[in-house]
Write a structure and sequence with these properties.
368 residues; mainly alpha; two-stranded antiparallel sheet; two-stranded antiparallel ribbon; 5% strand; globular
Length: 368
């Protein structure tokens, strides 16, 4: 009689999915958000005994409740999107540029220097042109330093760009103390508050409209650049395999340096918009961690500039809504951060199920 044995496979194994249609991937993401909202609702009832629907309504009101809140949200969205667009070409090339924070600060520092040193000494139109050029050059140079070391000596770009952030912060701190007004205050205050020299122009009654228009133009440019230009193609090939890129005649070192120059220049523009168009001053917190948040925005959007509009909106909405929850319900910031973290955790986790399929084992009998 044949000996029948049961062969056991692992409980489950993970396999790479074929590319899902776009609508299925978005259905998975939306499902993850809905599950996250349910989890947050249960946690809210357990910890605060508040009505979760009321909490969610408060989040929405915090972001969209008044025209002023909407404009502030659009301004924050534009600034986060600008930095996200800046780091995306490097990420697509698999150059992990964690230095967006420092590049934005250095661009803002160059802008502030022009406003302080040249304000009132040259025509305002010329001053703004000098500010634009200076901020882009400063950001580009700050990104160029780790790019050269990576291209020439294959240094670790993650650590290098991260350390450049701290150098940038200390440089800003030094010049804040140098330019502080009044002396001993430890801050610069509003630059050229009396004559508005170097302030970017306001379009109509909309204070942040110029910033939004500039970032929209950068978004369109970056989409076309990455998807349809020769440089965008080279970035994709280098990101897939540097050996393949070299084999087909692409100068990898040149691509790394060129791409980081672009990345830094756009970060410099973000610094220009923050200092010259929004805050009209500079501090060590001007970038407000956008350089790090931009990493998540870019990654969630799969390095697609158009999708980044949605992911930036989601992040800014959560931040604004979380702050409103803390204020209205008299909760500490930690609880609102927990809500934001849970939602982001589920969204990030959904990417696993978009890219991979979990296969559970099937036991079968083997006849010997």
């Amino acid at each position: 009689m044949a000996d029948v044995q049961t062969k056991h496979e692992p409980l489950f194994h993970i396999v790479k999915r074929d590319a899902l249609p776009w609508y299925k991937s978005w259905l998975i993401r939306i499902g993850a958000i809905l599950i996250a909202l349910v989890v947050c609702a249960l946690l809210t009832m357990f910890l605060t005994h508040e009505n979760p629907l009321k909490v969610y309504a408060t989040m929405f009101d915090g972001a969209f409740g008044t025209p002023r809140r909407i404009w502030n949200l659009l301004q924050s969205l534009a600034m986060l999107l600008c930095v996200s667009l800046a780091v995306t070409p490097a990420f697509k090339m698999r150059f992990w540029n964690i230095g967006g924070e420092g590049q934005v600060l250095i661009g803002g520092l160059a802008t502030a220097a022009c406003m302080i040193c040249l304000g009132g000494k040259i025509p305002n139109a010329l001053l703004i042109i000098v500010m634009i050029i200076s901020s882009m050059l400063a950001g580009a140079v700050w990104a160029l330093i780790p790019a050269i070391f990576k291209a020439k000596f294959n240094t670790n770009e993650t650590l290098f760009t991260l350390m450049m952030n701290y150098v940038g912060i200390q440089l800003v701190s030094y010049f804040v103390m140098l330019w502080e007004s009044p002396k001993g205050s430890g801050k610069i205050g509003i630059i050229n508050q009396d004559n508005h020299e170097g302030w970017l122009p306001v379009i109509g009654e909309y204070e942040y409209l110029l910033n939004i228009i500039i970032v929209l133009a950068i978004t369109i440019f970056m989409y076309v650049y990455l998807k349809y230009s020769k440089h965008g193609y080279e970035i994709s090939v280098v990101g897939e395999s540097q050996n393949t890129a070299r084999y087909i005649g692409i100068n990898v070192k040149k691509v790394i340096i060129r791409t980081m120059l672009l990345s830094g220049a756009i970060c410099g523009i973000a610094g220009l918009l923050l200092v010259g168009g929004t805050n009209h001053t500079i501090t060590t917190t001007t970038a407000d961690n956008r350089g790090f948040t931009a990493i998540m925005v870019s990654w969630l959007a799969k390095f697609n500039p158009l999708y980044m509009i949605l992911t930036s909106l989601l992040i800014v909405f959560l931040q604004r809504g979380a702050n409103e929850i803390s204020t209205v319900f008299n909760l500490n910031q930690s609880f609102s951060d927990i809500i934001t973290g849970i939602i982001l955790f589920f969204i990030i986790g959904s990417e696993f199920f978009i890219n991979y399929d979990v296969k559970f084992r099937h036991s079968h009998k083997e006849v010997k």
